[in-house]
Design brief:
Elements lengths: L1 H18 L10 E3 L2 E6 L2 E7 L5 E3 L3 E3 L6 E7 L12 E3 L6 E2 L12 E3 L6 E2 L12 E3 L6 E2 L12 E3 L6 E2 L12 E3 L6 E2 L12 E3 L6 E2 L14 E4 L2 E4 L11 E2 L1 E8 L7 E2 L9 E7 L3 E4 L5 E5 L6 E11 L2 E12 L5 E7 L2 E8 L17 E5 L9 E9 L2 E7 L2 E8 L17 E5 L9 E9 L2 E7 L2 E8 L13
Parallel strand pairs: 3-6, 4-7, 6-8, 7-9, 8-10, 10-12, 11-13, 13-15, 14-16, 15-17, 16-18, 23-28, 29-32, 33-36
Antiparallel strand pairs: 1-2, 2-3, 5-6, 19-20, 20-21, 22-24, 24-25, 26-27, 27-28, 29-30, 31-32, 33-34, 35-36, 37-38
Length: 486
């Protein structure tokens, strides 16, 4: 069987050897470094490679002779790197959309490929005969995985199709005789003819609910029926039941059970911590087949161990249109413990109140008064432990009203926590100096008046330029005593 697979590859390799030489057809191709390119409206296509790099990253952009500027590299053309004998690692750029037919066929030293999101198509036999390639992890953006894409990759051990591929095409991984693990993404619906034929060492298959068809020879000659079980389309396929590995036996989902195993207990005492680590949901199938579906089931846990009653574990599981729900009840026994709520104000105990978890509210003591403050107890929740509840005091806002000659000049808000306030300017008054009267900030509204003091002026009496006398007066003086005229 293996020799038959290799014949088709020899044809591919011969073609790749021919087509990998650069073509100099009129104006279609041009060079950019080690790459031969074709320019298109949507970007450039790599049609050939003349380099000798061992570790190659496909550039995101290369020069386009169509636009005269850099353009995205959108495609690797047919046989562009075919039969290259130097490449060991390969990394694709984010702009790449298509890898053409036989683009990397026969790259015998290629061990590692890094695919980038954005890739949509891998062509026919694109990586066929890459005999050293060990792992294939396809991006979720990939939509088309063509026939023979990774055929006869002799060292390949692990395959993940990603979550975009819907069909694993014919012979896609045929003849990969070291392949052990296959992970099908959530979008795979069909596994076509001979897709994994001749993969003699497959022992681990993972798949979701999306698979609808598996060709009768998709795994032809591949599976050890004593080792392989896999899960396809909401039913178990047991290869140990097969004859010739092509018939598929389906277990029909029939029931579920909820198992509570150690360290989770079948009964709890009040106050113990519930441990859900031992909860398992087991699906039962016809032919007495059981499967752990804990990760797939919907599990809800209701109840508390803080008071007598029960913990209710409910599970629901659906498979292939059949949904089954079950409930397991776990008793909680004993008496509810008593706890203490301690009420404090400014660090001093105001009162204590006993409660249990069955209490929804408790009778609070009165918050002690505090001059200049309003008081309330902080928010709290009654839970299975002693709690301390502190008084929260909020300063009351008072008003200082500044007046001059009976008129309001300004008001200023303050609290008992303020030591000073910003005073407005005392209004000017001709012939007077002004100041605010003395005041204290206390737990009440206050009025502060302007105090005006008359300024003292001097009347100087002179005769023939000589001072005869002086008299003091203010704006409030109505008359003064004059000295005798000399």
């Amino acid at each position: 069987m293996k020799k038959i697979f290799k014949k088709s590859l020899s044809v591919f390799l011969a073609l790749c050897f021919v087509y990998s030489f650069p073509s100099f057809a009129a104006n279609a191709e041009y060079s950019a470094g080690d790459f031969r390119l074709e320019a298109r409206d949507d970007g450039v296509v790599i049609v050939g490679y003349q380099g000798s790099e061992e570790n190659l990253t496909i550039p995101s952009v290369l020069h386009s002779e169509k636009t005269g500027e850099d353009a995205p590299v959108v495609e690797i053309g047919e046989c562009a790197f075919g039969y290259n004998n130097t490449l060991e690692t390969l990394t694709f750029s984010r702009n790449l959309k298509t890898i053409g037919d036989e683009a990397f066929c026969g790259c015998g030293k290629l061990t590692s490929i890094t695919f980038s999101e954005g890739l949509q198509t891998i062509g026919v036999s694109a990586f066929a005969g890459c005999a050293s390639l060990e792992t294939v992890e396809l991006p979720d953006s990939l939509l088309t995985l063509s026939a023979g894409a990774f055929e006869n990759c002799d060292a390949l051990r692990y395959v993940d199709t990603g979550n975009g591929v819907t069909t694993v095409s014919a012979a896609a991984f045929r003849g990969c005789d070291e392949l052990k693990t296959v992970v099908f993404g959530r979008s795979v619906e069909a596994i076509n003819k001979m897709a994994f034929a001749g993969c003699f060492k497959i022992s681990d298959i993972t798949a979701g609910h999306s698979i609808k068809t598996i060709a009768s020879d998709a795994f032809d000659g591949s599976l050890d029926p004593t080792k392989v079980k896999c899960y396809f389309n909401s039913a178990y396929y047991d290869f140990a039941k097969n004859e010739g590995y092509s018939a598929i036996h389906t277990f029909v989902f029939s029931d579920i059970t909820i198992e509570i195993s150690s360290p989770t207990k079948d009964q709890y005492n009040v106050g113990e911590t519930f441990d859900d680590s031992g909860i398992k949901v087991i699906a039962s199938y016809e032919d007495s087949y059981d499967r752990d579906v804990t990760e797939l089931a919907v599990i809800e846990i209701n109840g508390t161990t803080s008071k007598p009653g029960e913990i209710k574990v409910s599970a629901a599981y659906e498979e292939n249109g059949t949904e089954i729900s079950k409930i397991k009840r776990i008793p909680v026994v004993g008496e509810a413990a008593a706890y203490t709520a301690t009420f404090k104000a400014d660090g001093s105990i105001v009162g204590t109140v006993e409660f249990t978890v069955e209490d929804e509210t408790i009778t609070e003591p009165t918050v002690p008064t505090k001059e200049g403050y309003t008081g309330a107890w902080e928010a709290y929740t009654l839970k299975a432990e002693n709690i301390t509840i502190n008084a929260v005091y909020t300063p009351i806002e008072f008003t200082a009203t500044f007046k001059a000659d009976g008129e309001v000049v300004e008001t200023v808000e303050f609290t008992v926590e303020d030591e000073t306030i910003t005073e407005p300017t005392v209004p000017a008054k001709e012939g007077y100096t002004g100041a605010w009267e003395a005041y204290m900030l206390k737990a009440e509204n206050i009025t502060i008046n302007a105090v005006y003091t008359p300024i003292e002026f001097t009347a100087t009496f002179k005769a023939d330029g000589e001072v005869v006398g002086t008299v003091k007066f203010t704006v409030e003086t109505t008359e003064i005593t004059e000295p005798a005229v000399p």
